Amino acid sequence: MSTLPLSFSTLTLKGVDTEKFLQGQVTVDVTTIRDDEHRPTAICDLKGRIAFGLWLTRQSAEQFDVIISTDLLDSFKAHIRKYGAFSKMTASNAQVIYPVINNNSADFQINESTTTMAEWQQAAIAQGAAWITAANAGLFQPQELRLHQRAGVDYDKGCYLGQEIVARLYFRAKPKAWLHRVQGTGTLPQVGQTFASNVDIVNVVEANEGWEALVVAKPESLAESGLVVLPLPEALNGEVGRVTT
User: Fold this and answer.
1) Cα–Cα distance between 190 and 54 in angstroms, integer?
2) pLDDT tens per residue, range 62-106
3) Is residue 2 part of a domain?
4) What is the pLDDT of residue 169?
5) Are residues 13 and 96 in the same domain?
6) DSSP bridge pairs for 213
7) Which of 125, 153, 174 lies at the terminal end of a domain, its last residue?
8) Are 140 and 50 in contact (CB under 8 A)?
9) What pLDDT sits at residue 1?
10) Is-contact 240 178, C-beta < 8 A?
């Protein structure tokens, strides 16, 4: 588990096979990503749990910019070398990318900003925008983090790593536990920690003489935890599972 301060890095994947490679890796349909956005998505392991949390920008079919937590950068590069060994694609050197808040949302920019990482984390938690680091990689499935409600999962795009498990969870209607925003007091819990029975810490930051966190939990577990449940944006307030008619 990394003890380094939170930071993010960006690199560019470029080559004639870039779009095809990413389409077979990430949970989102990469052809729908625009050149003016940082689209959240994930690469899952074979158990359908998020190994890498990414933000993607599509410059063209042959060029994508990738943002990832710095403590996962080396692992991500190794993953690219393993799965992209026969793809006509190269990865640029990584560089630091800086936190910024745009329209009350946690975002990134190449140039340094006045936004602190704590402010970025507070904004991300308020938006339900969970992020993946070495501390919580491999712990959560995309739907548990409501990634599908943030346009980060596509169920019609075809095969990708972990797709069978992700799709199976969708057709079972909903996960057993899912993302909530909470407020607590006392000692700051650790990312990846089980705070109370069936309440798992995804991300956490100090706030208001206590702390705020994104957790994965069943609603009934939250009711027994003593934590205060805070609102999430409207887009994340709907039914977390598949809506059937």
Assistant:
1) 22
2) 999 999 999 999 999 999 999 998 999 999 999 999 999 999 999
3) no
4) 79
5) yes
6) 182, 204
7) 174
8) yes
9) 45
10) yes
Neighbours of 190 (CB within 10 A): 13
Q: For the chain, which residues score pLDDT lower than 70?
A: 1-3, 172-173, 242-245
User: Which residues constitute the domain of residue 201?
Assistant: 176-233
Residue written as tokens 């301060």?
Answer: 5
Number of domains in the chain: 2
Note whether 46 and 83 are same-domain residues.
Answer: yes
d(CA 76, CA 60): 21
Token pair of 76 as six digits: 């991500």
User: 40 Cβ partners below 8 Å, 6+ apart?
Assistant: 53, 54, 55, 129, 147, 150, 151, 152
Tell me how many helices (H) and strands (E) the chain has: 5, 12
Residue 67 amino acid letter: I
Closest CA to 43 of 172, 147, 175: 147
Q: Hey, what long-range contacts does 215-218 have (CB within 8 A, 24 or more apart)?
A: 215/179, 215/180, 215/181, 215/182, 216/140, 216/144, 216/145, 216/177, 216/178, 216/179, 216/180, 217/177, 217/178, 217/180, 218/176, 218/177
Extract the runs of DSSP E, i.e. beta strands, from the chain: 8-14, 39-44, 50-60, 63-69, 90-91, 95-102, 105-109, 178-184, 194-196, 199-207, 210-217, 228-230
